[in-house]
Write a structure and sequence with these properties.
By secondary structure, the protein is an alpha/beta fold. It contains 13 helices and 14 strands. The longest helix is centred in the N-terminal third of the chain and has 21 residues. The N and C termini lie far apart (53 Å). It comes from Alsobacter ponti. Keywords: Signal, Transport.
C-alpha cells in the first residue's frame, strides 16, 4: 500500500508539472505582464532586497534579462523569496515561472524533480569559513570540529562525503535556513561554517566582525549554479537558456550597454545575429528578433553583470576565476547564435 501511495503521489506531481508546463509559460507571462522569479530570501551579490524592496544581485539581473528579452522592460518582474526547502515545489507548482536562486545543477534535480537547468550563470564550489583565532589553515585540520550546515541541501551531502573520504570525524550541526545557520556560527555553536564559496564571501559581510573570519582554501565540490524551469515547455526553456548565452556572446564580441546602439551598425555577422539585424532567431523562440539587443541595452553583457553584483565593482570583490570567458581561461562558453 505504501508503494502504491508513493507511486500515486509521484504520478500526481508529474501530471501537475506537465499540466503547468504545457500551458505555455511564455503566453502566461505575456498575459499577466511580468515574469515571476523564484529568488533567495537574501544573499548579498546574488539575490537580496533592500529596506525599500529593491532587489539586486547576479540572479536578480538574470531575471531582469529574461524580462528585457520578452517585454523590452527589465522591471516587468516580481520576486518570490524562497527557502532551500520550498524552492523546487514553488517551481513545480507554477508559483514561479523560473527559479534563479543560487541552485546547484545535479542529476537528481534534473531528472526526478521535473526540472530543466538552462545553463550555469555562476560556477561555484563548496568551502569552509572559520574564525582566524582557531588557527586553522586547511579544511583537513577540521577533524572533530563542529560544522554548521543548512539541512536539505547538497552542501550537507558534500560535507559528509568530504569528511568520510578523508577519514575525519564530523560533528555536523544542521539548521533549517541559511539565516539560522549563520547566526549559530556567529554565536559560537560551531567551529566552522560551510556553504558555496560565493555564499561564504557574501555571508561573511553579515557578521558583526567580518575581519575576524577567513575562508579556507579548499574547494570540496563542483557547484554549477543556474536557472531552472519546468519540464515540458521547450519554448520557455530555450528563452531562459539563450538569455544567458546572449549575454556571454555579447561579452565575447565586446558589445556593452554603452556601445550597443553603435554596434547595431556593425557589419560583423556574429554581432548582427546577436542584435537581430540579421536572421530571425528571436522569432524562432516567440520573441522579437531584437531580443539580444534588448537584453544588452537594459542589463548588459555577462561581464558587466558579474562585476557590478559579485565582482570588483561590488562589496564581495570575487575574482572571475572559473567564471571568466573560455577565451580568458574560464569556463563560460556560449553556443553560437547561428
Amino acid at each position: 500500500m505504501k508503494k502504491i501511495l508513493v507511486s500515486a503521489a509521484a504520478g500526481a506531481l508529474a501530471a501537475l508539472v506537465s499540466s503547468v508546463a504545457s500551458a505555455g509559460t511564455l503566453d502566461t507571462v505575456k498575459q499577466k505582464g511580468f515574469v515571476q522569479c523564484g529568488a533567495n530570501t537574501g544573499l548579498a551579490g546574488f539575490g537580496q532586497p533592500d529596506a525599500q524592496g529593491n532587489w539586486t544581485g547576479l540572479d536578480v539581473d538574470t531575471c531582469r534579462a529574461i524580462a528585457a528579452a520578452i517585454f523590452n522592460d527589465p522591471t516587468k518582474i516580481k520576486f518570490t523569496p524562497l527557502s532551500a526547502k520550498d524552492r523546487f515545489t514553488a517551481l513545480q507548482s507554477g508559483e514561479v515561472d523560473v527559479l534563479v536562486r543560487n541552485t546547484t545543477w545535479t542529476i537528481s534535480r534534473d531528472t526526478s524533480l521535473g526540472l530543466n537547468f538552462t545553463g550555469v550563470n555562476y560556477y561555484d564550489g563548496q568551502g569552509f569559513m572559520v574564525r582566524k583565532s582557531l588557527k586553522v589553515a586547511s579544511a583537513l585540520e577540521l577533524g572533530g570540529a563542529s560544522v554548521c550546515v543548512q539541512q536539505g541541501t547538497t552542501t550537507e551531502l558534500n560535507l559528509a562525503d568530504y569528511f568520510r573520504a578523508n577519514k575525519l570525524e564530523l560533528k555536523s550541526v544542521t539548521f533549517a535556513t541559511s539565516d539560522e545557520t549563520l547566526k549559530a556560527y556567529e554565536a559560537g555553536r560551531c567551529d566552522a561554517f560551510t556553504t558555496d564559496a560565493s555564499g561564504l564571501y557574501s555571508e561573511r559581510l553579515r557578521l558583526s566582525k567580518p575581519d575576524e573570519h577567513m575562508v579556507l582554501p579548499e574547494i570540496i565540490s563542483k557547484e554549477p549554479l543556474g536557472p531552472s524551469v519546468r519540464h515540458g515547455d521547450d519554448q520557455w526553456f530555450d528563452i531562459v537558456k539563450w538569455t544567458l548565452y546572449a549575454q556571454l556572446t555579447a561579452e565575447e564580441l565586446g558589445v556593452t550597454q554603452a556601445n550597443v546602439d553603435q554596434m547595431m551598425k556593425s557589419e560583423n555577422p556574429d554581432v548582427k545575429r546577436l542584435l537581430g539585424t540579421e536572421g530571425k532567431f528571436g522569432e524562432a523562440m516567440g520573441l522579437p528578433n531584437d531580443w539580444g539587443y534588448r537584453i544588452i541595452k537594459h542589463v548588459g553583457n555577462y561581464g558587466e553583470m558579474f562585476e557590478r553584483t559579485v565582482g570588483q565593482g561590488s562589496p564581495l570583490k570575487i575574482a572571475r576565476g572559473l567564471n571568466a570567458l573560455w577565451t580568458k581561461g574560464g569556463l563560460q562558453y556560449a553556443p553560437p547564435i547561428r
